[in-house]
Design brief:
This protein is of the alpha+beta class. It folds into five domains: 59 residues, no CATH class; 65 residues; 163 residues, Nucleotidyltransferase, domain 5 (2-Layer Sandwich); 67 residues, no CATH class; 89 residues, no CATH class. It contains 18 helices and 14 strands. A hairpin with a 2-residue loop joins strand 11 and strand 12. Helix 13 runs antiparallel to helix 14, helix 13 runs parallel beside helix 15 and helix 16 crosses helix 17. The longest helix is centred in the last third of the chain and has 22 residues.
């Protein structure tokens, strides 16, 4: 409860008590006046209190007044007056200045209060008139008169993100007299030509042309504005001239002139997009058309009239349609099949798409020297490219490449774990030299070492050190080096310890037979075979 309310309540209780009213009668007194009576404990507290200033009345101010003493008061007033024109003066900054002036210089050990106490004291200085409050400039609004039928249309752009990361860009067009709303949506930013086409589609929808369009200072329509001198974009200027449309450009932050269409953009976002789970441009356009038809049939909350009915009256004041060069602005898609190479070819140049779209179909379109690529099923934008003026170029986004195979990392980690730091250093050099053959190089080393009966770590380290020192980072070089060192070690061992080398066994007699024994055996076998054949003749 604020201090002033408490004081008034207390004074009222004292006055009623002095007039002889009981506690219950005081409560009835409050209720008859339509005011909320004090609680029973509060009433008892003040009813039984003497009519004198209590410490409770002054205590809330006591802490605030600690800055009343000099030199704090004069310095605070000085700071406030110097910064009276600043709208966003922070009390914490004033408190910091006081710390700098009085504590950092050693004049005081600390300030008499904290920043909240200072905030309350400054509020007291302003309320008591000791510090002049900054002059407040408030804008005075003038009611815009009702436009005659067929006079003006309002245009403004909006955008809304829907499912699958798709951003819908839309243009709201509102007839000022009837309040008839038209919305054209697409999945990319409007170009001047596309905006002109959307306006012409609106003319076809209302079967006529208004006299002028009121627009914000949007880059699609306005190239530059200098002190009220408007320079339209070339395309928009040509469209206005073709359709004989006047132009009213709103000032920045001018709700009187463009508040209506800004409200329309907000209305589309809140009433249409907020509760709908949309996933594609086609779905958005279908449901948006149904929504517009329904909303234009409702009673307008401001005009209390039905926009569709008012349009029938306004159409009589609209000017006849004129043909337009912007009636057929193309935004057609190009359908393309991605093969084993994740590129789209356009005018001899190749532009990459994510590798996951290999052997799939995508679509793209060209808008103002940019290529927009979309998923053909979800219509989600995949990537975009600025078209190159050159020929036979290949443009690749590093994020579109297939990630490296994890097989090479698995093999390398196993080799490093088993054979140590030198193997890690050697494989790093191999992978740098053969980035496309990491798996093959690491696999060859693993295969060679796994088929050895046992691997001598000292020989392996010596072979790795030799390859690293010579910069010979190849699997084949390591294998040759290791085999040569192993053979050298064996030859060295034979020369130093010949008695350990196994020798062939000798001195055992071997039986030998004469060849005549084999000849006699063969002749006997042949004779028996001939006799058998002779007996079978007739």
């Amino acid at each position: 409860m604020g201090i002033s309310r408490r004081v008034i309540m207390k004074q009222t209780i004292f006055e009623q008590r002095d007039q002889g009213l009981t506690k219950t009668e005081i409560i009835d007194y409050y209720r008859k006046r339509g005011e909320k009576p004090p609680s029973w404990p509060t009433l008892i507290k003040y009813y039984n209190q003497e009519d004198s200033k209590s410490s409770e009345e002054v205590s809330p101010f006591a802490k605030e007044m600690v800055f009343e003493q000099e030199p704090f008061k004069s310095k605070i007033i000085e700071i406030l007056q110097e910064n009276c024109t600043k709208k966003n003066l922070k009390i914490s900054s004033v408190y910091d200045v006081l710390c700098e002036l009085f504590i950092d210089t050693g004049k005081y050990e600390k300030l008499p209060g904290n920043d909240q106490t200072l905030r309350n004291y400054i509020k007291y200085l302003k309320s008591s008139g000791q510090v002049a409050a900054a002059e407040e400039h408030r804008r005075i609004y003038q009611v815009v008169g009702k436009m005659p039928p067929g006079k003006q249309m309002l245009l403004d752009f909006g955008q809304q993100k829907i499912g699958h990361g798709i951003v819908i860009h839309f243009l709201c067009i509102l007839l000022r007299f009837s309040g008839f709303l038209y919305v054209f949506a697409q999945d990319h930013s409007f170009t001047a030509a596309e905006a002109c086409r959307a306006i012409y589609l609106f003319f076809q929808r209302i079967v006529g042309r208004p006299e002028e369009g009121a627009i914000d200072q949007d880059g699609v329509f306005i190239y530059q504005e200098n002190y009220g001198e408007i320079i339209e974009t070339e395309t928009f200027q040509a469209f206005l001239k073709e359709q004989e449309i006047g132009l009213y450009v709103c000032k920045k932050e001018d709700p009187e002139s463009k508040g209506g269409v800004e409200k329309s953009v907000q209305f589309v976002k809140q009433n249409f997009f907020s509760a709908r789970n949309l996933t594609s441009l086609a779905e958005t356009r279908t449901r948006l058309n149904s929504w517009l038809k329904r909303k234009n049939q409702r009673v307008h909350r401001i005009t209390l009239k039905v926009p569709a009915d008012e349009l029938e009256f306004e159409q009589k004041a609209l000017r006849p349609l004129l043909p337009s060069l912007y009636a057929n602005v193309t935004t057609d898609y190009h359908i393309v099949d991605i093969r084993d190479s994740f590129y789209i070819r356009y005018h001899t140049n190749r532009y990459s798409v994510p590798y996951t779209y290999c052997f799939k179909t995508v679509k793209f379109r060209i808008i103002e020297e940019q290529m927009f690529v979309y998923d053909i099923e979800t219509e989600r934008e995949i990537t975009r490219w600025v078209l190159s003026p050159g020929k036979n170029g290949t443009f690749t986004n590093p994020d579109h490449k297939r990630p490296e195979s994890t097989k090479s990392k698995v093999i390398a980690n196993a080799l490093i774990k088993q054979y140590g730091a030198l193997m890690s250093q050697f494989l790093e050099g191999v992978f740098e030299k053969y980035p496309r053959y990491k798996k093959e190089q690491a696999g060859r080393i693993e295969q060679y070492l796994s088929q050895l009966e046992w691997v001598r770590q000292t020989v392996l380290d010596e072979a790795l050190s030799s390859c690293i020192a010579s910069g010979n980072f190849k699997a084949s070089a390591f294998i040759l080096e290791y085999a040569a060192l192993e053979k050298f070690r064996e030859e060295q061992a034979e020369s130093l310890f010949p008695e350990l080398i196994p020798k062939p066994v000798s001195g055992i007699p071997v039986q030998k037979r004469d060849l005549s024994a084999y000849a006699d055996r063969f002749n006997a076998k042949a004779s028996s075979y001939t006799c058998t054949l002779g007996d079978s003749k007739p």
